[in-house]
Structure formats: structure tokens, C-alpha cells
Amino acid sequence: MTKLLLRALAGETLPVPPIWMMRQAGRYLPEYRATRAKAGDFLSLCYTPELAAEVTLQPIRRFGFDAAILFADILLVPQALGAELWFEAGEGPRLSTIRSRADLEALKPADAIHDHLAPVYETVRILSHELPRETALIGFAGAPWTVATYMIAGRGTPDQGPAHALMAENRPLFEALLDRITEATIEYLSQQVEAGAECVKLFDSWAGSLKGDDFTRYAVAPTKRIISELKARHPGLPVIAFPREAGEAYIGFAKATGADCVALDNSVSPEWAAQNVQKDGCVQGNLDPRLMVTGGEELVRETRRVVEAFRNGPHIFNLGHGITPDADPDNVQLMVDTVRGR
Ligand code: 1CP
Prior knowledge:
Blueprint: H1 4-9, H2 30-39, H3 42-46, H4 49-63, E1 67-69, H5 76-80, E2 85-88, E3 92-95, H6 101-105, H7 114-130, E4 136-142, H8 144-153, H9 161-169, H10 171-195, E5 199-204, H11 212-233, E6 239-243, H12 253-257, E7 261-263, H13 270-276, E8 282-287, H14 291-294, H15 296-309, E9 315-319, H16 329-339
Parallel strand pairs: 1-4, 4-5, 5-6, 6-7, 7-8, 8-9
Antiparallel strand pairs: 2-3
Helix pairs in contact: 2-4, 4-7, 7-10, 8-9, 8-10, 9-10, 10-11, 15-16
The structure holds coproporphyrinogen I.
């Protein structure tokens, strides 16, 4: 097993950490914008395997990252379950909403998603053949809570208000929705692995708005269920979990869920995380993505700081969240060179 990313996930402390970047295929790259224009719109890009594979490969060619992440979106699962999904130009995703038992009952069963998602599996198959031998292929899905926040609100929300409101008003309905998403996510990730994904990541982007018991029930428990089922079906499959903005709840998250690696956002310091989270295994993160816009000495200094803080344990270098469209590709190159000591 030579791929650096898989070695770090297996718990190895490496002299130079493997590196990749959340949203590494994206609008900050001119070649991405060109391929997206060719596809016509974002969802057509996701569902055209040759073009989705092409944008996945672009940042690998340009920067030589140690991992490629499948180009798709967490909102394809709700769409496969029967929700309507579209993107408002300049605003973001919109979905039909789940607010009643009838809305839930109109969704498809969890194992009926595969016809709709077949193009995504085809993208994974193409990538598993076209990636360089040293590059690992990461599959992904949204974690159930984060996906539920979009399905309930019908859009992205600053505080996940509608999802918290449904939880308070009709907990059985909320939990039934979470179960449906959990089951669909197991099916979806399992097919990605069958198609060639070597590792999977669960994005719980809104985990930080769950507190106390709710965090345990709706961030920890579904993640644990997905991981144990995936590992039963695919022994040895490494899983990265990203309970973004979990704060103190990052402590013990890997043990509680069975994740091989916990991805960290940049609201926690790398020194704190090395002491409190990395002691239990591999961590991923956590450079501030804003530095990909601002660059300069601060970028070099902070990159070295993250590498230094995590150097005594297994670590995958990454940003604390996705790179933004206004980032400068030259700053990405500077980060890569700094991590690799060039
Ligand atoms: O205009 C465009 O080209 C679309 C921008 C875009 C991109 C590049 C969206 C819309 N999704 C993606 C791809 C994507 N999304 C990937 C691909 C691989 C890569 O990282 O290179 C991944 C892993 C995601 C995951 C994703 N989608 C998350 C979780 C991670 C995170 O950023 O917190 C979330 C919350 C989404 C929903 C979504 N999709 C797109 C947008 C703009 C959003 C956020 C919407 C919102 O909350 O307002």
C-alpha cells in the first residue's frame, strides 16, 4: 500500500503529510469554469461522467495532490430520493421541502436511488482507471443531519432554523427523515466503493449547530451507523468524518463513530487539536481557506504551523473548509510547495 493518503488513514506518521483540498475542483480554476460552461450548468456537469471525471482530474494535473475527490454534490441524494433540486444562479441550491408525513411518504425507498445515481458511479469508474497510481480516490456523501437541513428548508440556511423547528415540532417525522437519508447514504457510498472509491468522506457541514444530546443523536449516531454498515460490507474501508464546527465535540468523535480520520475546520487551533483529537488517530486539516485568497508570508507561516503542530501523528493536510471562488491558484501552489518543503 503505497498511496500516502491511505498510509496516513491507516495511522502512519509520515515525514511529509499527504495533501488535498476541499472543493479542489471548483470555480477558482479557469479550466473548471471552461468545462462547466461546456456542460451548461452545474447539475449537468455532475451527471455527465466524462466531464465530471475531467474536472476531478484538473487539480490533480495542476498541483499533483495526493487525493482526488469525486466531483458530485451532497444534494444528489435528496434528488435521487425524489426531491426536486435546482440551482438559482448566483444564489445556490433550491429543493422541494419535507414538512409533513405525506412529503416523506412521497420519497422513494433508500434502495431505489441507484438508477438516478448511475452516472456518478460511472464517474468513479472512469477515475479509478485514469488517476495516477499514487493518487487516492475519495468518494463522499453528506452526513444525514446536513442533508436533512437542506431537505427541510429547501435551501442553505445560516442557522438551520427550519430543521431545528421540525425537530422540536415533530420529532418522529424528523427522525424518520434522518433514517431514510442514513439508509440511502449507506447504499450510495457502498456503490461508490464498488465502482472504485478507496476511501469515503462524510460531510457534516452543519454539525456545529447541534448541541448536547442532539449532537449525539443526530451527528454521532447516524455517522456511526453508516460507518459500521460500510465497514461490514467493505472490510478495511477507511472513512473520514467531518463534523464541521463541532468544537469540544471533536474530542472522542473518532472513537464514538468508528471514523478512521476526523477532519477539522479552522475554528479550532492545530495545537489544541493535536493534543485533544490527534491523540486518537489520524486528523485532516485545517488551514484557513481565506489564506488561499490573501497569500503571502502569512500563508507560508500558517501552512508551516499546521504541518508542525500535527507532525508527531498521522495527518492529512487540508483546508478547514472549501476553497472559495476568489482564491488565487498561485497561492494553492505556494501552499503545496510549503507543505512539501520546496
Ligand atoms: O457553480 C458551481 O460550479 C457550483 C459550486 C459547487 C461545487 C463546485 C457546488 C454547489 N457543489 C460543488 C461540488 C462539491 N460539493 C464537491 C465536489 C468535490 C470537491 O470538493 O472538489 C463536494 C465535496 C461538495 C460538498 C457539498 N455540497 C457540501 C459539503 C461541504 C461544504 O462545503 O460544507 C455542501 C454543504 C454542499 C451543498 C452545496 N452545493 C453547492 C453549493 C454552493 C452548496 C452550499 C449551499 C449553501 O449552503 O448555501
